[in-house]
User: Fold this.
Amino acid sequence: MASLPVQALPASKRLDEPPPAHTRIGPVILSVANISLDFGGVRAISDVSFDVREHEVLAIIGPNGAGKSSMLNVINGVYHAQQGRIRFKDREFAAMQPHRAAAMGIARTFQNLALFKGMSVLDNIMTGRNMKMRTGILAQALRVGPAEREEMRHREVVEHIIDFLEIQAYRKTPVGRLAYGLQKRVDLGRALALEPEVLLLDEPMAGMNVEEKQDMCRFILDVNEQYGTTIVLIEHDMGVVMDISDRIVVLDYGRKIGDGTPGEVRGNRAVIDAYLGATH
Amino acid sequence: MNIPRYVPVAALSALLAAGLIAPLATGETAPGFWVEVLIGGLMTGVLYSLVALGFVLIFKASGVFNFAQGAMVLFAALAVARLAERMPVWAAVIGAVVIMIALAFAVERLVLRPLVNQDAVALLMATLGITFFLNGFGQSIWGSDIYEINLGIPREPMMVLGNVFEGGVLVNRDDIAAAITAVLLVGALAVFFRRTATGRALRAVADDHQAAQSIGIPLDRIWVIVWSVAGVVAIVGGVIWGGKLGVQFSISQVALKALPVVILGGFESVPGAIVGGLIIGVGEKMAEVFLAPPLIKAFDLAGGGIENWFAYVLALLFLLVRPEGLFGERRIDRV
Assistant:
């Protein structure tokens, strides 16, 4: 497995075997507190709070319309909550802005593919490096020395991501022509190009067959283990969720009804009722 | 009905080509004159292309159909003409660039940002408002007479190809300068879009706003950049047009001719704007000169006027057979 050459990783993260959860997981890196979100009178989220710890894999689950995607959109600033605070790396926000979230190290993928259809796989992932480019427009246009070197350096990172996601064969293909499962990988690749600390994945396995799901699970776990990236994901496939998550937050009708390890959540009465329908 | 996509395009191209060649083939027209009409048409086409280019840039990056592009051309031309009374032309052009960038900031801050996520109709109405404001405001500060822009290019036309055609071909020097400028501008824009990180960001925003934001591209800054670029394109168009015919209110009406151009070329295509502009420029000029006389004779009409409606009829045909234009993307919506 290739590794990103961009930052020297601490020795513990270079081990082939992932360290056990209690040593891997660090302090709280992101927390949302008392978030409430309305859309013109319709309440999407009410008073939801939870913490995300460094290096963990956190799943947000819940029936359709529970407010899961809205929650991700609040964290990365697409929606602005009417109430509540978001705390990320010791900075507190009432409302995040998407480009600031990206600049601070929060990347995301989308439930419905949101790739740049006219561009190749390579260019799509390259856009993830845009923020990190420092040379001036003129230098880039003329491809003078420093700009050329910078382009090469970013290109190298992107090539590693492409290797990592096993999409070498499609580097120059316009993404619109790729199969759905591959497009999902490109979406993930573009987010990885930001070298995020927190990666928000909105249904990364939706619409995939079993084999594609297994691949995607492997990529997510590898990202988490090799680069220590904190993962927050929304997923409907309970088998997958139970397998790969360290912790699960359960939403139902915009409220939080469960929060704990897979084992705890599995035995939570409210969660079982929400999924199977309560008998009164 | 399932006509392959290339059929209407091929048919149209054949028809245009036939119409172009016919007067030559029948020997009714002197080749030299034919070439002069062609060049005249290409020149008008360059101007249409430049205005259409402004439309396309803004539409690509923000999905806004900027009705005010024509007013921006007039405003920019007025700025250059009036500033040039007090300073050299090159300094006036730089001044106009500063003014158009300031305008881009103002539009983003006062119009686009408050209306973000509103209906496309609301934004279209807003740009209509900008059109009338710019036309009026431009006259308030720059005046409403006809002004000259003197680029220092000799007025008398050059005689070229004298050994090919009998009597040669008359070409205006400013036309040549204009064509070269337009080519350079388009080349510079292509390099900007293809090679720079900002260009890549602009293409990203054009494809998907939300995804672009999620990788750290600030939409508001992109809008300022794209409106600034459209402003600079407007300056080039305004200076070429104004240098040729004088700066006057009618420049603002060119925008209406750029509409059929973008329909022909495709709303999101830079090459489409250029090719579409040239086709319409040449087409309407050729139609006026070569198609009108036989029509007038045959049907005992009062006069020509084909130049005025040719572009719109062509655009209408395109809307019927190929609504996405020559180079536009065919949108397939997944539900």
Summary: The domain at 24-105+196-280 of chain A is CATH 3.40.50.300 (Rossmann fold).
